[in-house]
Amino acid sequence: MMGNMDNMDNECPHKVAIPPTKPFLKSLATTLKETFFPDDPFRQFRSQSPSRKLVMGLQYFVPILEWAPRYTFDSFKADLVAGITIASLAVPQGISYAKLASLPPIIGLYSSFVPPLVYAMLGSSRDLAVGTVAVASLLIFSMLGKEVSPTERTKEYVQLVFTSTFFAGVFQASLGFLRLGFLVDFLSHAAIVGFMGGAATVVCLQQLKGMLGLVRFTHATDLVSVMRSVVTQVHEWRWESGVLGCCFLFFLLLTRYLSKKRPTFFWINAMAPLTSVILGSVFVYLSHAEKHGVQVIGHLKKGLNPPSMTELAFGSPHLMTAIKVGIVTGVIALAEGVAVGRSFATFKNYHIDGNKEMIAFGMMNIAGSCTSCYLTSGPFSRTAVNFNAGCKSSVSNIVMATAVMITLVFLTPLFHYTPLVVLSSIIIAAMLGLIDYEAAIHLWKIDKFDFVVCISSYIGVIFGSVEIGLVTAVVLSLVRVLISIARPRTFALGNIPNSMIYRSMDQYPNATHVPGVLILQIDSPIYFANANYLRERISRWIYEEEDRVKTSGENSLHYIVLDMSAVGSIDTSGISMLEETKKNVDRRGLKLVMANPRSEVIKKLEKSKFIESLGEEWIYLTVGEAVGACNFMLHTRKQNHAGVPFGAQDCNV
Question: What average pLDDT score do residues 361-371 get?
Fold first, then answer.
């Protein structure tokens, strides 16, 4: 291996070392650990007695066992206030989102009772408030409603919803147990912003049915179908519902505005939905508005969640659809819930384990599917209220579940006169907060491709369907990843004046070309997916540099230096690419030089005998050393006129 020749001596102070070969099984174990256990969750079990390991294992999978012994009465007082506050939001939202999913309203209340209790035991977030979510509710209706009519075959539809919730839970828990949570990361932030915004827009449009008091309405979710359904039924619009809905929507938006202006008044926004339900119910009861076209919820069955294990439709002809819906909604619920949990954990400077969260989400949805609940997650709106109310732990979820239990046992008859238009207003007010146009503007300023991903996902949802929008979001996110892999960046490096530092000439315009030397940096691993592109791109760099040299009248090109410091790994296709590049460089009468190949790369190059082909003397530790050697060779050739043989020094790698 050649050392620093900038001083034109025979010393070789630095060498590129080839690390010793590890046994295959040890190397495989290291790779698997880095892939599935990057956080090293087992480190806490080291040097512990068997009994202590058992206790720590239980605490790891059931976090409440770890923090409950340290729980204080002061924390309980804070959680009590937070739990009652989010319960006031959970009851109207639960009923509203159940209607959005075309489920009986009581199922929305059931879903705010059992799942929060399970999450309180298994979840690692102190702030996440569990409940039903609008986007998942819309997905369930749009995907399952095509197979089974929720109005004509209500029982079968409900069974399929429970079944899809069960498979969503199994899928979520499996991702957590198998440490495959990184798969959810393939939904990029830009895709999620666009998809959520599109879904929120579609949800708002769907609420025109309730706002206008329409009885018949399209099952399609795209903008054109919804507007056609609205416009063609102008004669059936109920002005009473429209006026009532607009009044409550104005009230809800006003309370949100006041809460944003004065954060200390967060409770006003939190109490607004329940206040709307109470006021709407009282108004309808006193005015008998249900006799004048204002639709109401009607009878809600009293009592706690009935078991639904026997309702899981494993033998249904629509089982595959239920599985597909479960996986899709499970991914969306995970992406939202984990992101929300991490966001609020950052505010309080603590860490949540993504894989443990997936297990908690999965177990609560499995338990929910067996107790007449449908899909739940950690909605942002409810979690924000929980956070602002000063919650200290997930006991706030237990308090909320207790309040919902009291509602189920004693208070459900009070919701008989609740107008559906109020529920529509609550949903619209909540969904408007998910249309994050500021995030889209930010994406446009920062990254145009991310903006295209965001807008494409949004358009796919509102003009196609929720499924089309979701597929668009996933495909474009994967395309972004594939483009970065298949078309890696390469840079021409130049010398920063008065230094031995070499940096991209695009980033540093004052960097200068090194006469006779072209320095290229490859900015990614070299795989089969990008090997051909890199070969062609390096060839293009070479002839572009030769053209530039001829035009400028500089010294002719002699050396191609490849800076490999950013190449973390290489496969056999990548090695073949380097061999072909070397042959191409040799045909042009040039010399290929390498700088700073990384550990895995140098091992494979040595095993493939590429180093022997290139010459050990042409591999350097730094770009500076490589350029120094090239300059020395050029200087020596100029002095001797005839030149010296390549390979002036021979240092062992």
Answer: 95
- The residue to which tokens 């650990």 are assigned: 33
For residue 168 the two structure tokens come to 């969503």
275-299 mean pLDDT? 83
Task: State which amino acid sits at residue 93.
Answer: Q
Task: Decide if 473 contacts 191 (C-beta within 8 A).
Answer: yes
pTM of the prediction?
Answer: 0.75
Q: Please spell the DSSP secondary structure of 43-85, one letter per residue.
A: GGGTT--HHHHHHHHHHHHSTHHHHGGG--HHHHHHHHHHHHH
Give the tens place of pLDDT for each residue, 476-534: 888 888 888 899 999 999 999 988 899 999 999 999 999 999 999 999 999 999 999 99
Tokens of 397: 């979820």
Torsion sign, CA atoms 340, 342, 347, 352: positive
User: Alpha-carbon dihedral of residues 96, 98, 104, 109, nearest 10 degrees?
Assistant: -80
In terms of Cα–Cα distance, which of 338, 392, 389, 401 is closest to 131? 401
| CB crowding 237-272: b at 16 or more within 10 Å, else e | bbebbeebbebbbebbbebbeebeeeeeebbebbbb
Long-range contacts of 153-159 (CB under 8 A, 24+ apart): 154/104, 156/313, 156/316, 157/102, 157/103, 158/103, 158/104, 158/107, 158/311, 159/311, 159/312, 159/313, 159/316
Three-state SS letters, 148-200: CCCCCCHHHHHHHHHHHHHHHHHHHHHHHHCCCHHHHHHCCHHHHHHHHHHHH
Name the β-bridge partners of 495.
502, 512
Nearest CA to 244 among 297, 295, 203? 295
Which of 545, 565, 570 is CA-nearest to residue 620?
565
pLDDT of residue 643: 45
Q: Closest Cα partner for 624 from 510, 502, 507, 535?
A: 502
- 373, 319, 341: which is closest to 136 by C-alpha? 373
pLDDT: which is higher, 615 or 553: 615
